[in-house]
Amino acid sequence: MKGIHQLPQIILASKSPRRQELIRLLDFDFKVVLKEVDESYPEELKPEEVAVYIAEQKAKAYDGELNGEIVVTADTIVCIDDQILGKPEDAAHAVEMLQLLSGRVHRVITGVCILYKGEYNKFFDVSEVFFRKLTDEEITAYVSQYKPFDKAGAYGIQEWIGLTAIERINGSYTNVVGLPTEKLYQQLIRLVKQ
Ligand SMILES: Cc1cn([C@H]2C[C@H](O)[C@@H](COP(=O)(O)OP(=O)(O)OP(=O)(O)O)O2)c(=O)[nH]c1=O
């Protein structure tokens, strides 16, 4: 037990350093435990459903292995014109994604799954991100220097490109980084106190 609300131990099943840092800042007693999970999804799902579906798959890997802990998993996708952008496969793919996002608004959806006492509690958050027009030079320089291959949509809002090219966002900032902390906090308290 730790933090203002004294929650049980949390297992953050995520290799993402940004998620680990955010959950640390929430002041939880947590540890990181990782498992390989297949991130494929049924094609007919809507973007919001995809993020939640993958988050749930990540949590399912812990079913039956818990002893009162809370498992938290998440999945972040970028969505433009109903096209889902995951992580880029290589530099050319990253450049293509950023050219698509340049000068336009897109949605970032993070699905979250909380596994507690055998129940899967799922939700998602959506943020709109407004990019100014990026030049091709900026895009290629960013991709070669920052190698955003571990990031949905090929960019990090917390990096150089986010600081210099995002005009504004509508919604939660931490949701774009990979974990909607305000919603997650409310859900955790609701589950533990009920
Ligand atoms: C859009 C955006 C995404 N991201 C990150 C969040 C996620 O870590 C990543 C999307 O990939 P995910 O598959 O959501 O997560 P992950 O593979 O990094 O970690 P795990 O599955 O173990 O939890 O992109 C940023 O850091 N900044 C951004 O602005």
UniProtKB/TrEMBL annotation:
<dbReference type="GO" id="GO:0047429">
    <property type="term" value="F:nucleoside triphosphate diphosphatase activity"/>
</dbReference>
<dbReference type="InterPro" id="IPR003697">
    <property type="entry name" value="Maf-like"/>
</dbReference>
<dbReference type="GO" id="GO:0009117">
    <property type="term" value="P:nucleotide metabolic process"/>
</dbReference>
<dbReference type="Pfam" id="PF02545">
    <property type="entry name" value="Maf"/>
</dbReference>
<feature type="site" description="Important for substrate specificity">
    <location>
        <position position="158"/>
    </location>
</feature>
<feature type="site" description="Important for substrate specificity">
    <location>
        <position position="76"/>
    </location>
</feature>
<keyword id="KW-0963">Cytoplasm</keyword>
<feature type="active site" description="Proton acceptor">
    <location>
        <position position="75"/>
    </location>
</feature>
<feature type="site" description="Important for substrate specificity">
    <location>
        <position position="18"/>
    </location>
</feature>
<dbReference type="InterPro" id="IPR029001">
    <property type="entry name" value="ITPase-like_fam"/>
</dbReference>
<keyword id="KW-0378">Hydrolase</keyword>
<protein>
    <recommendedName>
        <fullName>dTTP/UTP pyrophosphatase</fullName>
        <ecNumber>3.6.1.9</ecNumber>
    </recommendedName>
</protein>
<comment type="similarity">
    <text>Belongs to the Maf family. YhdE subfamily.</text>
</comment>
<dbReference type="GO" id="GO:0005737">
    <property type="term" value="C:cytoplasm"/>
</dbReference>
<comment type="function">
    <text>Nucleoside triphosphate pyrophosphatase that hydrolyzes dTTP and UTP. May have a dual role in cell division arrest and in preventing the incorporation of modified nucleotides into cellular nucleic acids.</text>
</comment>
<keyword id="KW-0546">Nucleotide metabolism</keyword>
